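This part of the workshop introduces the protein records we will be handling. A record pairs a protein's sequence with a compact description of its fold. Comparing a sequence with its tokens is the quickest way to learn the format. The record below serves as our worked example for the rest of this section:
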Amino acid sequence: MAMEFAINVPNFGEYADPRITAELARAAEAAGWDGFFVWDHINAAFGEGSPMADPWVLLAAISMTTERLRIGTMVTPLARRRPWKVARETVTIDHLSGGRLILGVGLGHPADLEFAAFGEEPDDRHRGQRLDEALEVLTGLWGGEPFTFEGAHYDVTNVQFLPTPLQRPRIPIWVAQTYPHRRPLVRAARWDGLVPMHPTDMFPTPEQVHEMVGIATSLRTVEAPFDVNVPVVLSGDRSGSGRLAREYEDAGATWLQVGAWGIDELRAQIAAGPPR
């Protein structure tokens, strides 16, 4: 299958206005892009006093203005959300969009501002444990049958959620991993995809992606599609963009998601179309 291309936007600053973000998504669909993903932050320090929007409200607006794009969060820190609330939000967006939602999940960053500032535990291991339990609760509630779960962090007693997602067997789940940590690769191998990142450059090299994909796929125990969605920033003149996309595809990437800090630059990237 050929590589697919998406636009990736923050949920703060100029992008915090749902009308603007929905307009950008509509433009991306018209220009031939395959997906449109939004960040999920609540208090990140990307500018003092920067306005922020709830990602689910942004996705609702995007759902209503597009027909074809795959959409979703890249990525939601499940450890700071109640999984039953996320179950309701994701199924609602899945129905509103006609079955186009993908759920990206991860630990969340930065931990001091997104967790500790609200009295939440910032420790990575603790948040990883909560993330794993939350995924079990989330997918259990998506099943539509009476569901019970008893864990170290969450308890659910005989709860049935309807409706179920439109997508079968369920909404795809992609797991973020920051190079070179291995534990998130083990987690990603249990689900449907990987979102490789780099702690300093924000995106990994094709060589690093190749390494991460090799580890994740070696840990897979089911025969099912496995997506790898790499975030990148392209040069303004797009020189070498097609070659770069092919390098990532050769490394095992199935998606390339393109972002830009400035909204004018992003509009130009959208209008130029995906670097096929």
About this structure: DSSP finds nine helices and ten strands in the chain. The mean pLDDT is 93. The beta strands are 4-9, 35-38, 70-77, 101-106, 147-150, 155-159, 173-178, 193-197, 227-232, 255-258.
